[in-house]
Write a structure and sequence with these properties.
By secondary structure, the protein is mostly helical. The protein has 2 domains: about 1-65, no CATH class; about 70-130, no CATH class. About 30% of the residues lie in helices and about 5% in strands. It has 4 helices and 2 strands, in the order ααβαβα. A two-stranded parallel ribbon has the order 1-2. α3 (about 90-105) links the parallel β1 and β2 (about 110). α1 packs parallel to α2 (about 60-65). The longest helix is centred in the C-terminal third of the chain and has 13 residues, at about 90-105.
């Protein structure tokens, strides 16, 4: 997780802490790249807290951290009964449309569906792209 460990929102979507946010670490993109290289990882799932305190919400920093050629799109499911319920289930046809758009945008691999998660078939996708 990048951009710190604390979130600026007090929503009930996840279990991220809502304590005061940390300063953005300008070395984080380099640190993540070095960790990936040193560990010999084939793929990495990057996620982040919400940073409403930043002018761009942290998008610029996120972009500095991520050689993105794979995309996963899934349906929110609450992690517990204390979290917000699902208000709408996205139809599988809609996920198919999202996948086509993403492929047209140039992503090399797209997993798009109701039960897809951020690391969904990451190893298999990496084999398809890298060979």
């Amino acid at each position: 997780m990048i951009l710190g460990k604390n979130c600026t929102r007090n929503c009930k979507f996840c279990n991220v802490t809502k304590a005061p946010v940390e300063k953005v670490n300008p070395e984080e993109p380099k640190n993540v790249a070095n960790a990936v290289k040193e560990l010999g990882l084939k793929y990495v799932v990057i996620t982040s807290v919400t940073r409403d305190d930043l002018p761009d919400g942290g998008a610029g920093h996120f972009a500095k951290v991520i050689g993105c050629n794979m995309l996963t799109i899934g349906q929110y499911l609450p992690p517990s009964k204390e979290h917000l319920p699902v208000l709408e289930y996205v139809h599988p046809d809609t996920f198919d449309k999202y996948k086509k758009i993403a492929l047209d945008l140039g992503f090399e691999f797209v997993a798009s569906g109701p039960l897809v998660r951020s690391s969904y078939n990451a190893n298999e996708a990496t084999k398809l792209i890298v060979g």
